[in-house]
Each structure stands twice: as structure tokens, then as C-alpha cells.
Amino acid sequence: MTATKSSSIAPFLFVRLKHYFCPPCWLTSRSSSTLVGQPSSSTLRAILSEAECRLQSPPAHPFVRNLLSQDLGGLAASLRGLAGTKHPLVEDAKRSLLFSAVGGSGGLSSDSSASSALASTVGQTRRAVVLLVARAHEELLTKGSDLHDLELLRRRQCQLADIADSVYTALSIHSRVVPPTNSDLAKGNALAALAGDYLLASASLGLAELDRPPVVKLISEAICDIVAGRFSLIANAAGTDNMEAASLCTMATCVLNQWSMDFAGNKRRILSSIIEAKRLGASYRLGPELEITGYGCSDHFYEGDTFLHSWQVLRDLLIDPATRDIVCDVGMPVRHLGVAYNCRVVFLNGQVLLIRPKTRMADDGNYRESRWFSRWTKRGEIDKTFQLPDLIESAIGQSTAPFGDAVLAFRDASLGFETCEEIWTIGS
Ligand SMILES: NC(=O)CC[C@H](N)C(=O)O
Fold it and tell me: Which of 55, 179, 279, 311 is packed most tightly, with the most Cβ within 10 A?
């Protein structure tokens, strides 16, 4: 195909193309092969077949396929020839681009499934037009340029096409999400969305005028982050339907300065760590091993009082309003059927959910856990009828709690346990 500046067929070609591509547009292919250059004839055939199906009738023109492929080829060649001549065709291309970018071509209805296909196709057309127009200028701009410049230019053309497509997509989303209606609420939503766009667009303009690419990049990234943050807030608020959002959880682990047998001080530090965990938005607070007594109580673990005082501290924690609305996992020694275990006690809103004994003892080096504790050997088993001491029952009204090796299943998460030595032990 030869390109001449005075090609008389060019305006005709473009007008016809516009007719094909603009509403009532029926092209529905999402193929992206049309976006970077001239569409292949097989792509065009696929697009047209789909269009025919949608129209449920044969195309008006028997040679429409051939005409369309010729049009595209002719358009590209003719535009290239017209570059820089201020020919109305180039203006027409520009107008068409802007016209469709504001949804003015009237093709976007509010709710039909065809409208999203249409939006995507018109978006593709836009990218194709941007590329064609840009390519038409390419010859002028690249006269005497080397290959590297050409490559750079192509990349910029694609970026331009992407930007045009993003703007169009944003606006078409609005016209579908907030369709024109008489309801005040819908009008308010539409105005809010458009006002937000307008302000962001103004910010972009201001950034462009700065003419400092690194600053523009930084601020644009910040805007993206803010929007992503808002988006995840909405997703979180949407409930557990959104599994990705529902699986996000903040957990607090604490390293406390606990002292052996300092029950009052240890309790104070545990409580303040729970308050801190809640302040930071955690829904689960995990404390150190044997944090109520302190880890190194040595033969004090033979004394009944050590267990009693541990329960007293636990009672105070259970009834303290500061421990509400967070899963607390504290470490303390517990006797079950007369046997001492090094345990995790998990509670929520004043109720003991599980007492979980350690299943592997640390006895290497100067660790001597087996001297004071037994390990829980019943893997995956619990005693559901563990009797809580009277002082706990009278404080919280709960008489028994599950004792053993279990996983706690919450509505949106499961909680398993591993205490220190268990991490290093195969098969634990
Ligand atoms: N308390 C423990 O279970 C300690 C075990 C582990 N071997 C360590 O050295 O830390």
C-alpha cells in the first residue's frame, strides 16, 4: 500500500473505521494483538465472527472482513503520509480519541454484560488509534534517528496508549458503577467519584508542570498506595466473603522482662503487653514460656504455691477488662491429674479456650525441664473435662476447659501451638 499525502480515500477510510469502531459498536474481542500494531487478519476474523454472533445476523456487507482489514492497513499508511500536514484526518483521529475517552459516544449502558465487553473493545480501539496516530508522527520524528531512539519512541507510544486506556477505563467504570439516575444518593455518589477524579487529574497537571520526573514518580506512587490502602479497608469491612482480606491478621509476640516468682511484677508486665498489643491492632497476643512464674523457678516448680499463685494471676487477667477482645496466650505451669506440665493457657473474653501442655522437654545443656515437668505424649488428644480450680470457676463461671494437644479453629483462622523445644524436635 502506498501512502500519499493527497490520498483522497483516506478520509473515507477513517470515517468508515470510526463507524465500525464507535458505538453502536459490536466488537467484543479482548485480544490485545490489535494494540501493538496492525491487527492480524485472523484476529479480525475472530472479532467479526463474534460481532456477527452478537448481531445474530450476517454482516450487512458481504465483504466486510476484507474491507476492515484493508481499512486498517490503509489508515496506518495514510496517516503516516499525512503526518505533520495539519490534515483534518489527523484532527479527526484526535477528536475521536477525546470523544470516546469521555464516554460521549453513548455506547456505555449501565448494566448490560455487553457494556463491559463494549467498554473493553472501545478501549482497545483507543489504544490502536493512539498507536496509529503516534506512528504517523514517528517518521517525522525519527528522520535521522538511530535504532535505539526508535525503540525508545515505541515504548513511549505504548505508555501513551496505556495512559489513554487507563483514563478511559476509569471513566467507563464510573458510568457503570454510578449510572445516571434520579436518586439523590446515586447522584451524590457519581459527583463524589467524579470530584475525586477531577482533583486527582488537577494534581497530575500540577505534577506535570513541576517538570521533575522523580518527584512526579514519588507522589504518584504515594497516591497509588493511599488508594490501595483505602481499597483494602473496604475489602476488610466487606466481611469474610473476601478470603484474601479475611486472612489478614495482626499478631503480637512479646519478650517480657519476667522475674522468677515475682507474680505481681510478672502480672503487671503481661497486662501492659496485652494493652500494648491491642493498641497496635493485634487480635492475638502471645507471651513467653512460663511467663506468669518466670522461666527459671527451678525447684519452686515442686511447690504447690507456685501453681496456686499462677492460677491467681490467670484469674486476675481473665477478669481484667483490658484483656477483652483479644486472644491471649500466656505461659504457666498447670497440674493435670497430679502431673505438672509446662503449658500455654489460651483465653478470650474471660473464657479459657484451651490449656495446651508442652509435648517435648528441653533437657540439653543447663535446661532441666524433665526434672519438674512431664511432656504431654497424647498427640492430637485432649481431655475435655479438665477441672478448673474453684478460684477460676467462681471468678468466670467456667468449670472445665479442654486440656491437651489441639488446634483452635476460629471463624477465619486456625491457631496451632509450638513451645520452644518443640520447634527443634523432629515429629513434634
Ligand atoms: N525452653 C526451651 O524449650 C529451650 C529449648 C531450646 N533447645 C533452646 O536452646 O532454646
Answer: 311
